[in-house]
Design brief:
This protein is α+β, with helices and mostly antiparallel strands. The protein contains six helices and 14 strands. 22% of the residues lie in helices and 40% in strands. The strands form three sheets. A five-stranded mixed beta sheet has the order 12-5-6-14-13. It has a five-stranded mixed beta sheet with strand order 7-10-11-9-8. The longest helix has 18 residues. The protein is elongated, with a radius of gyration of 23 Å.
Length: 250
Amino acid sequence: KLTASHSGANVVIKLTDDGAGLNPERIRQKAIEKGLISPETQLSHSQILNLVLMPGFSTAAQVSNLSGRGVGMDVVKRSIESLRGSVDLNSKHNEGTTIVIKLPLTLAIIEGLLVEVGPAKYVIPLSMVEECVEQTEDAVKKQNGKHLINIRGQLVPFVNMREWFSIDGDRPEIEQIVVANIEGDRFGLAVDDVLGHHQTVIKNLGKLYSNVQGISGATILGDGAVALIMDIPKIFKIATDEEAINLECA
């Protein structure tokens, strides 16, 4: 299975198979035989798996014209790192292997949904959006402060983006809930208005704003205004972590 997604300031490429997986004990023994590590070296499971990315490493018993020389994965790693990216391995013996490649966004173009919250405009990656639903003031009052909306019999948690970004002003009479899907979990974002589809050229925020939570980049709109690009997985993680802490305290 091959998937590609946008997360934070990166493009994440994930390759998953259901094959034999990697044998960590065999990898460790081969690394010792080749002198890449000493027998006394203590490594975590992840560090052992990532030994296959080292120059000259191979578990092949015989060398052929195509394999066994231990240069393929090494070349892949160096090529990715030259693009300021990273590669990570995760595997379970006899279950399969997952390889995650992260590459930075540099003038990448994504399809986005342009939304409005107060005077500001934001872009939500369209690949994560499932649907948009309306929420009235009466519906908000019935929620008793809980950020849950009933969509066709299913309760979907949501975050109010006015509160998230501390934007002053009154909420509109009818809000829009943009429902996103994050690895199977449905999650909503309450915004003032949905303006429509927007093809977005992503620009990095720079070091000064690199640690801003919930924002992965910015883009310049046709009128010259700047719209920030929401980091939906990050917002979802922070919101669910905070909810779990609140439940524990209660």
